[in-house]
Structures are given as C-alpha cells and as structure tokens.
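A reminder from the course coordinator: this example appears on the midterm review sheet, so study it carefully.

Given structure:
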C-alpha cells in the first residue's frame, strides 16, 4: 500500500457515498423539499440526491459538534464565573480552483442556518484578501495570483482573529470576479453563530511559509476544516469547461478584466485555459494547496462527473 494511503487510513474514517448518506437517518432533519429545491438553484450541477446524501449528514455532524462546543463554553464560563463575549464557530473550506468550494460553502450556509441552535451563519471568501491588482503588478505577482504571497495575510489573520475574539462588528474586503480586483466596498460581520471561511489558502500554516517564523495563521482560529478534493485531471477539465462557459457570460461583460477572451474560438479558448492551468493553477495546487489536504477534519472526494464519491472523517 502506498505511504500516502497508509497515512490516510491511519488518520481518517472512510465512508462511501451510500454509507455516509445513511448517517442522516439517525436524527430527523427540519429541511423541507422546498428548501432543498432552493439550494439546488444555487448551482445547477448540484442535484437534490447530492444534497440529501452528502450535505445533510454533514450538516447534522456539524450541528452536533457546534452544540458540544457551545455547551463547553457555557461550562467554562460558569466555572470561571464570567460572561464571555459571543464568539462564532469557524468552519473553513479549502480545495483547488474549479473544485466547487464556493458551492459547498453556500449549501452548508443554507443548511446550517436551519438549525435553531445557530441560526446566524455568515460566509466570507478569502478572495477579498488578495492584494489589489495595482499592488500585485507592483510586486510582480500578477502571474502568481492565488499563490500564498498574493494574499494580504496580515489583514486576513487580523480579520479572523477579531471575529474569533468576539468583536461586535468586523469588516472584510469584497472581491469582483468581473473586474478581477478587490472592491472598495466591504462586508460587515456581526457576531454570527457560525462563520464559514472559504478559500484556497485557509489550511496553510507557517510550515508552508518560506520564512520559518512562528506567527498566527488562519488555521489557528478555525474550529473545523473541510477539504474538497478531486484528481487533478478532472480539475483541469472542469477549469477548461468553466472558462469556455465564461466566454458567453462573465467575459462578455465589457467591464470584465477578461473581456478580450470573449471572442476566442473554441480551440483558442481551450489552449488559453489549459495554459493558465499548466502555468498557474496546477503548480499552485501541487505545491501549496494539495499538501494541506491531510490537515482537514473532513475530506469530500469528487469523481469525474462532479458527484461526491467518498467522505473521509478525521478520527
């Protein structure tokens, strides 16, 4: 057995899709068919069976974990004789470009907000913490966008730290996939019960830094981490397919940073998307993202058709 498989077997409980889906039956859920229909509208590739088989059991698991954490906090505060500030449970979602992190994050946000114990669930993506385009150009990092050095990690860690400390209102920068740049507007986070943090870099730590100086990282403030996984050959295919679809949607907008790609013929578009993957997204996956996978509390493994095939839960 390869070493990687041996390590994974030692660290994780493995569930097939069918065995994982059975875990939702242990406790009745409050979601209706209408609720699930709305979730399916978030992304047409997500089917109702996928939500039922994968995300409802995950929602149940996270609800149980969050309830236990809330109970522990009450006990600790009672022991200390103090009233602590309200602090959210932070869930991070990592994975490659094109793997479907954003869809996973939105579905979990919708499902978790249905539980009465934690009705306020906020979602923040780390895209907003990328350096602005002008700064990336100044630093010579435009072709390294998405790599660790392209993020304002100090600002990101300060944001997560403030939220975790119970600060009443914290602001996060917003990002536009149309202009390919950070926006001047911010989004306000006001003491949610749960904060979902989605991004390429949320599992990276000081071990991934070229400078071996111990400093806080996002993962230090995360309570539960999820990695959405798939083989690179499928990821590249999905990225190219998405690029082709963008030609007639996002790229067609005159404001789009990639508007000049809107009129590419199929062969040209495939060549361009493949080049971007081979020179940017693929190397970033192999060198910076994939090595963090086994740090996750839970791994969702996708197959060729985007459907979840396996769930790995850290022991």
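Designed residues:
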């Amino acid at each position: 057995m390869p070493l990687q498989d041996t390590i994974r077997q030692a660290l994780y409980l493995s569930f097939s899709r069918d065995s994982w889906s059975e875990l939702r039956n242990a406790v009745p859920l409050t979601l209706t068919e209408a609720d699930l229909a709305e979730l399916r509208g978030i992304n047409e590739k997500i089917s109702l069976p996928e939500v039922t088989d994968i995300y409802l059991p995950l929602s149940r698991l996270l609800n149980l974990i969050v309830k236990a954490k809330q109970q522990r906090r009450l006990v600790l505060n009672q022991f200390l004789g103090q009233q602590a500030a309200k602090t959210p449970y932070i869930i991070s979602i990592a994975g490659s470009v094109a793997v479907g992190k954003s869809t996973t994050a939105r579905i979990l946000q919708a499902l978790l907000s249905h539980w009465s114990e934690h009705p306020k669930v906020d979602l923040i993506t780390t895209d907003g913490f990328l350096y602005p385009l002008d700064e990336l150009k100044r630093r010579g990092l435009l072709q390294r966008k998405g790599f660790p050095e392209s993020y304002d990690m100090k600002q990101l860690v300060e944001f997560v730290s403030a939220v975790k400390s119970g600060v009443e209102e914290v602001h996060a920068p917003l990002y536009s996939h149309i202009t390919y740049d950070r926006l001047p507007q911010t989004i306000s986070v006001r003491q949610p019960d749960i904060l979902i943090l989605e991004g390429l870099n949320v599992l990276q730590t000081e071990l991934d830094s070229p400078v071996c100086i111990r400093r806080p990282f996002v993962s230090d403030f995360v309570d539960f981490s999820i990695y959405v996984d798939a083989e690179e050959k499928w990821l590249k295919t999905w990225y190219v397919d998405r690029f082709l679809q963008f030609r007639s949607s996002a790229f067609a907008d005159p404001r789009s940073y990639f508007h000049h790609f809107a009129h590419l013929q199929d062969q040209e578009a495939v060549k361009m998307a493949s080049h971007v993957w081979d020179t940017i997204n693929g190397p970033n996956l192999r060198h910076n993202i994939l090595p963090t996978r086994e740090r996750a509390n839970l791994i969702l493994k996708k197959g060729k058709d985007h459907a979840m095939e396996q769930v790995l839960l850290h022991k």
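The longest strand covers residues 181-189. DSSP finds nine helices and nine strands in the chain.
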